[in-house]
Amino acid sequence: MDQKISMENIFQKLGDLKSFFVYGQKLIPILQKILDFMQDTVPLLENVNRSIHESTSKMPKAALQINSVTNATEVATTEILDIVDGMTVDVQGMHSKLDSLKKKLGEDDDIASLLTLVQKIEERMMNITISLQVQDITAQQLSSVNHLIQSIQEKLGGLLTELDDKENGGLAVDDHQFPRDAAFNADARYEKNTSSQELVDSLVADNLTKASQSEIDKLFAKQ
Amino acid sequence: MALKFLVVDDSVTMRRIVANSLKTIGHDLYVEAGDGREALAKLVADDSINFVITDWNMPDVSGLELVKAIRSNDKFGTIPILMVTTRGLKEDIVEALQAKVNNYVVKPFTPQILKEKIEQIISSAA
Predict the structure, then answer these.
(1) Which CATH class is domain B5-125?
(2) Domain spans of chain B?
(3) Do B13 and A78 touch (CB under 8 A)?
(4) pLDDT digits over A96-120, tens only?
(5) For the stretch B26-64, what's the b/e string if a residue is b when 16 or more beta carbons lie within 10 angstroms of its beta carbon?
(6) pTM for this one?
(7) Residue pairs between chains A and B whose CB atoms are closer than 8 Å
(8) A140 neighbourhood in chain B, CB within 8 Å
(9) Which residues have CB under 8 Å from A223's CB, separation 6+?
(10) Contacts of A129 in chain B (CB under 8 A)
(11) A141 to chain B, minimum CA–CA distance in Å?
């Protein structure tokens, strides 16, 4: 009887073993696929790591190049302003000569039309000067981009230093240093619409009203 | 009394544009400063300055810090201040008004806007 039970147990175990082998046969291709995937992925990850290293080390140079663009536009804008100033002096000279001519010759259609033309030129030159404010606004936008690049470089640099194995000797950063962080408004916009100024005017008016009320309150408090 | 302006901006371009705009609206007297620290030094050195036009975003001492420093000074604490800046958000404007700027202009501006604000400040002070 005992022998019969033992044999049943052995057959049971053999059945389990057979199931295990069948399961193993199914599992082996999956494991093989995982291994293949890892073999493909490791070089890719190494490539990504190398790319991040290279990009991170180039960031200070990119920031310096952006800075040199700002400097170049400032120089060019100053040159344009010099030219506009020179032209303004010339046009103002023309204006006063025409005024003198008008006094000498009396009312004259040609002089009147020339004076109108000169006034238009003066207005247009002032418009050029006003439009050149774009240089300051874009300089602030570029400073904001530089600040962003610097922040990303610091984050990536920290991450790579943590991930890097000691053999690689840490992050190799380009010799170029970041330009000095300039003061900027990240929201600077070159917009000629008057909505921002209207908001200012309403807030200033509101502020003045409050100030007047507080003065009235002070006066009543003294009585 | 003739107005003598102190134009404070870290951008050479903007100082030039503000100065040109002042000339256009009939004000030829002005001195310049590149940041808040230089502006304070000029105010201390030159008693004839009686109007400040300042930017906000400047290195070292910002425009807002300059306004606070001026307002806490016994010698020139009541000088009119006009802030000319790219900052057009409500909270910025409120912060500047709380710091006691007399008026506020958002860039880009025109000489007409500048004239209007200067006249408003002068007439309210009179």
Answers:
(1) alpha beta
(2) 5-125
(3) yes
(4) 999 999 999 898 899 999 999 999 9
(5) ebeebbbbbbbbbbbebbeeeeebbbbbbbbbbeebbbb
(6) 0.78
(7) 100
(8) 57, 86
(9) none
(10) 17, 20-21
(11) 11
